[in-house]
Design brief:
alpha/beta, Lyase, Ornithine Decarboxylase, Chain A, domain 1, TIM Barrel, 2 domains, 10-stranded mixed beta sheet, 8-stranded parallel beta sheet, 12 helices, 18 strands, globular
């Protein structure tokens, strides 16, 4: 587990707390984040001091998940080759966790400190946030068409605050638009007179018919690659794509769809090498792997990972699993590689806490959390435990006795049976959540607990998110 300092995250950087921070009690308004967490003038805060509804982050889970993913990446092995015979330089994969999950630079820094090679973002604005946060290497999982952000990236690369920025392109038209945006940005001038600006690294994005973005065939992707090579100010850096758009469960059919697509991505990388298109400095990048199928990425691609080129063409295999840092109790818990015995064991780091505010009829409780507070896009919150009166040990909820049936903006409907009928106004329910990506974005500031499972969890830090 992280030490006490690491668990604090943004506590020491948060200024005066106030109405903007709905996760802290009104009694903390006017107090700095550090003073409130330290309990200046009284005891340090605990879960019982927090208002409801509230979303909390479990420091222990974050530390365990981060360490588990880092260890997995170091030892990831291909299922299709003899790794022992491949040479000492061909081993594992690199991580570039998707930062859009949390948009929390303090979490990004935790992952980078654990060995992540880069951070992934989805939009030009998110790239700007990452550069402002000092992230040294950033993958943009999409095109970079904003001339102002091109200029920002050029400045960061020129002054050394960033080492590398890589964007995606899935069509010749996208390549043209990217080159035009760079030209409009005056990137060379922004980098400093006489110094020039390094070309923007571009990864060709492979998709599939009916999927999201991405070239619809290897031939179309090859045309994109050739266009990048010919475009001023751009440099072909490799291939990428998102297999999670092709499947949504762990059925044998879905797993084979993902495997087949990964083989096409692998073949595309080989064809770019064969045509001599990958001539830039450093290792070519082959990137895939959301939080659902990263085990398959390793099985199909890890034998390519050879950043120093000790056993073949210098290639860096980069996995972008981002939800793994917080994990969940819903979608990812059901599809994570660990369920297939093929990945690290992760545990949920996010929990919702909501208070019973009404028992208007038998078998129904209304809680004070709604869509404004908790994610609903990948499944409704699940009642896990109850703190009677909001204090003391959390009593587990018997499965099937407290079922979330709907959420309004600020209300959660909980249908009760059996022992759960005793739920009373004032009780606080711990809720397991599905999809961390749409949980973080509802909270500008999250209290960080030492252990959400403890009888009286302590607030040991604060985490700020940047969602605009």
């Amino acid at each position: 587990m992280d030490g006490p300092h690491e668990q604090r995250f943004d506590a020491d950087a948060v200024g005066a707390l106030g109405p903007w921070a709905k996760a802290v009690p009104v009694s903390a308004w006017g107090t700095t984040g550090a003073d409130w967490v330290d309990g200046t003038g009284g005891r340090p805060p605990t879960l019982a001091d927090l208002p409801t509804p509230v979303l909390t982050l479990d420091a222990g889970a974050v530390a365990e998940n981060t360490a588990a993913m880092a260890a997995w990446a170091r030892t990831a092995r291909s299922a299709t080759s003899d790794r022992a015979a491949a040479g000492p330089g061909v081993r594992g994969v690199d991580l570039a966790p998707h930062g859009k999950t949390s948009m929390a630079p303090a979490l990004w820094r935790t992952q980078l400190a654990a060995g992540a090679w880069a951070v992934t973002v989805a939009t030009p604005w998110q790239l700007a946030v990452a550069l402002d946060a000092g992230v040294p290497r950033v993958l943009v999982a999409g095109p970079l068409l904003d001339a102002r952000v091109h200029a920002l990236a050029a400045r960061a690369l020129a002054d050394g605050s960033a080492e590398r920025v890589l964007a995606w392109a899935d069509g010749v038209d996208v390549v043209t638009a990217t080159a035009q945006a760079r030209a409009r940005s005056g990137a060379d001038a922004e980098a400093g007179e006489g110094t020039g600006s390094p070309p923007l690294d571009v990864l060709v994005e492979l998709g599939a018919p009916g999927a999201r973005t991405g070239a619809r065939s290897a031939e179309a992707a090859l045309a994109v690659a050739r266009a990048v090579v010919a475009a001023p100010g751009l440099r072909l850096a490799g291939v990428a794509g998102y297999e999670g758009a092709l499947a949504h469960d762990a059925s044998p059919r879905s797993l084979e769809v993902v495997r087949a697509w990964l083989r096409v991505l692998r073949d595309l990388h080989g064809r770019l090498l064969a045509e001599g298109l990958l001539t830039g400095p450093g290792a070519a990048v082959v990137s895939a792997g959301g939080s659902a199928y990263f085990d398959l990425v390793a099985e199909e691609l890890a034998d390519l990972h050879d950043p120093r080129g000790e056993a073949g063409p210098a290639t860096r295999v980069v996995v972008r699993a981002g939800a793994s840092v917080a994990h969940d109790d819903g979608f990812y818990a059901g599809i994570t590689p660990a369920t297939r015995g093929a990945g690290p064991a992760l545990r949920a780091g996010l929990h919702g806490w909501a208070r019973v505010i009404s028992r208007p009829e038998p078998g129904l409780a209304l809680l004070d959390a709604g869509k404004r507070d908790l994610p609903v896009d990948e499944g409704l919150p699940v009642a896990q435990a109850v703190r009677r009166g909001g204090r003391g040990p959390a009593v587990p909820v018997e499965p099937g006795t407290a079922t979330t049936t709907a959420l309004n903006d600020q209300h959660l409907f909980l249908r009760l049976s059996g022992a759960a009928q005793h739920l009373a106004v004032g009780d606080v329910v711990r809720l397991g959540l599905s999809h961390p990506c749409t949980a973080f974005d509802r909270w500008a500031l999250l209290p960080v607990l030492d252990d959400a499972r403890a009888d009286e969890p302590r607030v040991v830090g604060l985490l700020r998110t940047v969602f605009g």
